Amino acid sequence: MNMASLLTIVLMALATYMTRVLGYVALRNRTLGPRATMTMEAAPGCVLVAVIAPHFVAGDPAELLALVVTVAAATRLPMLPTVAMGIGAAFLLRHLLV
Amino acid sequence: MSNTLILDRTSPLEGGDGGAHSEFLRGLRASLPVLCGFLPFALVLGAQAAQKGIGSFELALMTGLNFGGGSEFAAIKLWTSPPHVLLIVAITLLINSRHLLMGGTLAPFIRHLPRHRAFVALFFMCDESWAMGMADARRRAAAGEEHPFSLPYYMGNAVSLYLVWALFTSLGVMVGPFIGDVRAWGFDMAFPAVFLVLMRGMWKGWRAGFPWFVSLTVAAVAYLFIPGAWYVAAGALSGIVAAWFWVGGEQ
User: For residue B30, which residues of chain A lie inside 8 Å, CB to CB?
Assistant: First the structure.
């Protein structure tokens, strides 16, 4: 491995670790007011849904149908069956609707 | 004497109920469905790295030190020999900027921990381990636990995800070229499935969920029209700004 690769990897890791600790460092000694607390309660869902947003605007119908199945499963089933149904639906629909 | 023993048994670091050992195992079990998504994509990342001439050790170093799948896929895609250091670090920062928010929401739950423990716990924070740790803490808070965040549960979950990711990405450098397209098998749907189940656990009705729809809409539009990885930051921030005004409007 050359120095440039090693440097890139180490700097990537430092940058990522910084993003992981800074939020905690900034807020660990603060007590948020009621409005900020309620706002922060919405934050986790905002982050999660933003990460998977590309699935909601996938171009072809097989992707969107598979997502509909997954959303339906997620509203009533535990984690493992939902994951299994999501993978199964994506697999089947991609092969059936091509 | 007996008083001290009783106090020790309910120490927050022990998770309060059942002890650290069983809490760690509970976290380990919770990680299993998530691994359905992690494992195939770890192999894929390895296969893509192999195509760029990156070795097993080099990739294990990256995934073991960085531990952020999104930024690693982007880094491999941009990888040249020698790599553009600043470009890759900037993209890494952008993709992982959501951790700032995640660490902030975790802060009230882990502020009672000694700082060195918090810093170790945060090293292992990924989308899944954070969301599951938060969901578990909220459940326990609703059940009246004084320190609802169970560190051993979180660590059991997070360390399991970490080890599988680091091991199978480096394994993927060797076997990845033989597994083909994992998207064709539907494995990529494991991520929305996991995230949606976690969101159901946080759901408090349509009114409280409004900021999520703002986040989803802005992220989707940004994904379609803005090149690069801005959509997560754009969506999440819009959602939070919406939540701030939404909450204010209710009072």
Answer: 79
Give the closest of A8, A24, A79 to B110, CB-based: A24
Q: What is the ipTM of this complex?
A: 0.91
Closest CA to B100 of A22, A31, A13: A22
Report the largest interatomic distance among the alpha carbons of chain A, rounded to a whole angstrom. Answer: 55
CA end-to-end span of chain B, whole Å?
50
The answer on B154 and B130 residing in a single domain is yes
Query: If we measure between CA atoms, which residue out of B141, B99, B86, B25 comes closest to residue A51?
Result: B99
- Domains of chain A, residue spans: 1-30, 42-98
pLDDT at position B10 is 42
CB distance B85–A44 less than 8 Å? no
Report the amino acid identity of residue B155: M
B103 → closest Cβ in A23, A35, A73: A23
CB contact under 8 A, A83 and B193: yes
Same domain, B131 and B144: yes
Task: Check CB contact under 8 Å for B125 and A78.
Answer: no
Residue-wise pLDDT for A19-44, tens only, equals 999 999 999 998 888 898 888 888 88
Could you tell me if residue B11 is inside a domain? no
The reported pTM is 0.84
| Distance in Å, alpha carbon of B208 to nearest chain A alpha carbon | 8
Q: How many domains does chain B have?
A: 2
Does the distance separating the beta carbons of A8 and B89 come in below 8 Å? yes
Enclosing domain of residue B235? 204-251
Residue B50 within any structural domain of the chain: yes
Which of B229, B232, B202 has its CA nearest to residue B218? B232
What is the radius of gyration, based on Cα positions, of chain B? Answer: 20
Asked whether residue B6 is assigned to any structural domain, the reply reads no
pLDDT beyond 90 at B193: yes
Instruction: Give the CA count within 13 Å in the CB-facing half-sphere of A68.
Output: 7
B250 — pLDDT class (breaks 50, 70, 90): low
Quick one: which of A92, A19, A79 has its CA closest to B97? A19
